[in-house]
Amino acid sequence: MASYRAMVVGMGKRGKHHAFAFHANPAFEVVGICDIVPDALPALAEQLGGAATGTDAAAMAAELKPDVFCFCTHPNLRLGLIEAGVRCGARLIAFEKPLAATSREAMAIRDLLDAHPGVKVVVSHQHRYGAHYRKVREIIDSGALGRVHTVYATTPGWMLHMCTHMIDYMRWYAGNPRAEWVMGQAAGRSKLTDNHPSPDYLAGVIQFEGGVRGNIECGAGAPDQPEVAKWWGKNRIGAQGTEGFAEVLTNGGWRAVTPQGTMSGDGAMNYDLDMPPYIQEMADWLDGTIETHQNSFANAYAGFEIMAGLCRSAIQGGQVALPLTDAGMDEIAALGRVIPDRPVLLGSPLHAAEFGQG
C-alpha cells in the first residue's frame, strides 16, 4: 500500500513526467490530476490508476488533501499554488523550476514557507541525477582536480528556462558555497514576452565564498557546443581546479583531464532515468531517512538569488551583494525598461531561429 497520496497540477509534458514517475513508485498513489484544459485528463487518469480529475487546483487540493502537492506550470503561477498546497495540509510541495519569475514573488514564497516550517518543498532541478552529471561530481569529490577555483556553465536556452538549472549544478560542483556578490549584463528583447520571460542573453560572474569564481552565459550569445546535436542539450557545466578540469554536456556525455590522464564517457538527459531517483528522494525525505532533498527549497532559493542578482546588476550597473536584503522587485519589468531595443548578437548561427533571426 502506498505511503503518500500525490496530486499533480498542470498535465503538460513535465506534469506527465511527474505524475507517471509518482505512479511508478510504490511509495506514492496519484489521487488527482488537474489542468485548465481537461480534454486529455480522463485517459491520463485511467493510466494513473483512476485518479480524480478537475480544472480547479485549489478546490481539488482542499477536497483530496494530498500528502504531496505537485505543480508544473509556467513561471507566472507560483505563489497562489504554493498557498493552495499549504492550505490543503500537504506535507511536501514539489514544483517546476524556476522558483519564481521575480525576486518579489520569490521572497513572498520564502516568507510564506518560513511561516509554515513543517512543509517540505522541492524545486525540480533533476538533471543532477543523470549518470554523466554525477560522474563529474565523483571526479571532483575524489580530489583529482585539486583545489576547485572556477565553475562555469553555458546554455543557449534563455534565462527562465535554463539559468537556475545552470547555477544549481555550478554550485553543486563547487560544494554548494554561498554566493557573496555577482555582476551581470543582459541584451536582447525578443524573449521578454515569452511564457518564460527573459532577456535574450544574460551573462555574468559570481563570487562564491572561499574565492571560488563562477562564470555563466544563458541565451542567444552563449557559444555553441558542436559535439551536441540537440539544441536544448547544448549545455556545458564544469569545474576547473589546480590539477585539472571536468565537465558535462547535457546531451553529450562528460570529459575530464586530471593528472591520471584524459577521460570521457557517454550520457544524455533522459527523463526516464532522471525522474525515478528524484521522486524516490521525496519519499526518503518524507520517511525521514535522509536529512533533506537535493532539490530542496533552500538550495533552489540560493540559486534563484544569484539569477536575480545578475538581473539587478544588468539593470542598475555594478556589483550586487548577496544575499538580497530588500523586499524584492520585478526584475523582468525593469529589464524591459533598460535593455536597448536592438537585435541581440548571436554566439552561433544555430541560435538564430530561437531568437527571431532565422
Structural class: alpha/beta
Low-confidence stretches: none
Number of strands: 15
Main-sheet strand order equals 14-13-12-11-7-10-9-8-15
Q: Give a quick account of the main beta sheet: strands, pairing sense, barrel closure.
A: 9 strands, mixed
Q: Span from first to last CA?
A: 53 Å
Q: What's the tally of helices? A: 10
DSSP helix fraction: 25-40%
The CATH topology of the largest domain comes to: Dihydrodipicolinate Reductase, domain 2
Radius of gyration: 20 Å
Strand content: 15-25%
Order of helices and strands: EHEHEHEHEHEHEHEEEEEEEHHEH
Mean pLDDT: 97
* Shape designation: globular
- Structural domain count: 2
CATH class division of the largest domain: Alpha Beta
* CATH architectural arrangement of the largest domain: 2-Layer Sandwich
Give a description of the structure.
Helix 4 runs parallel beside helix 5, helix 7 crosses helix 9 and helix 9 runs parallel beside helix 10. The protein has 358 residues and is α/β, with parallel strands linked by helices. The protein has ten helices and 15 strands. Strands 14-13-12-11-7-10-9-8-15 form a nine-stranded mixed beta sheet. The mean pLDDT is 97. Helices cover 34% and strands 24% of the residues. The chain has two domains: 147 residues, 3-Layer(aba) Sandwich (Rossmann fold), CATH 3.40.50; 205 residues, Dihydrodipicolinate Reductase, domain 2. Strand 11 and strand 12 form a beta hairpin.
